[in-house]
Known about the structure:
This protein is α/β, with parallel strands linked by helices. The protein has one domain: NAD(P)-binding Rossmann-like Domain (Rossmann fold). The chain has 6 helices and 7 strands; from the N terminus they run βαββαβαβαβαβα. It has a 7-stranded parallel beta sheet, with helices on both faces. Helix 4 links the parallel strand 5 and strand 6. It is globular, with a radius of gyration of 17 Å. The model has no long low-confidence stretch (mean pLDDT 98). The structure holds NADP nicotinamide-adenine-dinucleotide phosphate.
Amino acid sequence: MMDVKNATVFITGASRGLGLAFAREARRRGATKVYAGMRNAARFEQAGIVPVRIDVTDTASIAAAAALAADTTLLINNAGIAALIDGPLSVDVATQSARMFDTNYYGVVRVTQAFERILLAKPNAAIINVLSDIVWLPRPYLTPYAASKAAAWSFTNQLRFQLREPGIQVLGLHVGFIDTDLTNGIDVPKASPEDVVRQTYDALAAGKSEVMADQGTALLKSTLAAEVPGYITPPPGL
Length: 238
Ligand SMILES: NC(=O)c1ccc[n+]([C@@H]2O[C@H](COP(=O)([O-])OP(=O)(O)OC[C@H]3O[C@@H](n4cnc5c(N)ncnc54)[C@H](OP(=O)(O)O)[C@@H]3O)[C@@H](O)[C@H]2O)c1
């Protein structure tokens, strides 16, 4: 289990949205150092937060960021993109899937590989992967995004098992709509990034392996053992 207090945290996609909330809350909780990974670090200025250039689709930038942040003890794979399409059979499903996978799946894989040795060398280290309720929720217009997050969920499960022995905690964050740029123009109830981050850091400190950061996601997960689970027929309200 890991307390963010006294951790050295590296977050991908921390220029805004959930990633920035992770950075701010880490600092508030007394993290030793907070690295905010971002594609454009030139104009970022927040007291106590160190901007680091990283594009999760660019291996060279990942290697450079890992070299610079070699004291990291908590890696947060947060960077992600989404796009709406017509449905699972629309003409752009393959091209959009490739784009989503490059960031949302291979991005997580590449960054985790680059930080592996850094984390293994620490007496107490952890990884948080930002996933979604979409891994269990049919939303045809989010097909490419859902597939990429389901792949990242699968990777998280393999990684958690692999890293159990060396003692690295791996926490998967599942959550529905959050109020960030990613959901601009989608008119539904949304969780606040600050609340999601609070629950995630609390779960990490409690030694958990995953966190359902809103009621809808918790309800969805509770249906998984039912004869008709939520990924076939979502529970009312979802
Ligand atoms: N919002 C939701 O409803 C929701 C729900 C469940 C899960 N999530 C997940 O939460 C995470 C954060 O999303 P958000 O809602 O905060 O979205 P957001 O406000 O759109 O922020 C996305 C962040 O990811 C960064 N990013 C995108 N592609 C990148 C790349 N190739 N390399 C490095 N950084 C990259 C963006 O950087 P730039 O500023 O350079 O574009 C930005 O900092 C994502 O993994 C998303 O899938 C979001």
